[in-house]
Write a structure and sequence with these properties.
Cyclic Phosphodiesterase, Chain: A; 3 helices; 4-stranded antiparallel β-sheet; Phosphoesterase_HXTX; RNA 2',3'-cyclic 3'-phosphodiesterase activity; 10 strands
Length: 182
């Protein structure tokens, strides 16, 4: 290949690890969001509500099996995670409107860190930012934090974490691992 010829692009998928929100949780959060009467931003579809553990970005198809094998080796909490989403925040720099936990469980941060460390040998996760657990309600939100009719108080009970593919605004679960230790 000559220096001016670009290398062929291998097939890839946009991947991330997350704790999914169960259907009753998604429904309650979506109802609360409707009560805000938002007139700005792009609301995240309720079926996409999740708490990201680690965003991987574009991963070559032939690496996905290795990603799953690495995820299977991480130390996991000995029981389901219970996360209270009790803060309503606007991250102006990223234009994100979200729910966050005021006191995230220590095990949540440990799981996110363990995933990042397990994927470093594959050349993935090295660019991970500081872990800030959240559930995104709206993207491209360019206004002030709306007045909330009631304080947020949602509980996520997660008994597994999963690897998801992001494709054209839809998230598809690829694999999952129980939160019952290893």
């Amino acid at each position: 290949m000559s220096p001016s010829t670009p290398e062929p692009q291998l097939p890839q998928k946009r991947l991330f690890f997350a704790l999914p929100c169960a259907q009753p949780q998604r429904k309650a959060i979506a109802q609360w969001r409707r009560e805000l009467g938002l007139r700005n931003g792009s609301p995240v579809p309720s079926e996409n509500f999740h708490l990201t553990l680690l965003f991987l970005g574009a991963v070559e198809l032939d690496q996905i099996e290795q990603v799953c094998q690495a995820a299977a080796t991480v130390s996991r909490p000995q029981s389901p995670l219970r996360i209270t989403l009790d803060r309503f925040e606007l991250w102006q720099r990223n234009a994100l409107l979200m729910l966050t936990p005021s006191q995230p469980p220590k095990a949540l941060g440990q799981l996110a860190y363990a995933l990042q460390q397990a994927l470093l040998p594959l050349g993935l996760g090295a660019e991970a930012k500081e872990f800030r657990p959240h559930v995104t309600l709206s993207r491209r939100f360019n206004s002030t934090l709306p007045e909330s009719p009631s304080e947020p108080e949602f509980w996520l009970k997660c008994d597994y974490f999963a690897l998801f593919e992001s494709h054209q605004g839809r998230y598809r679960e690829i694999a999952r691992w129980p939160l019952d230790g290893i």
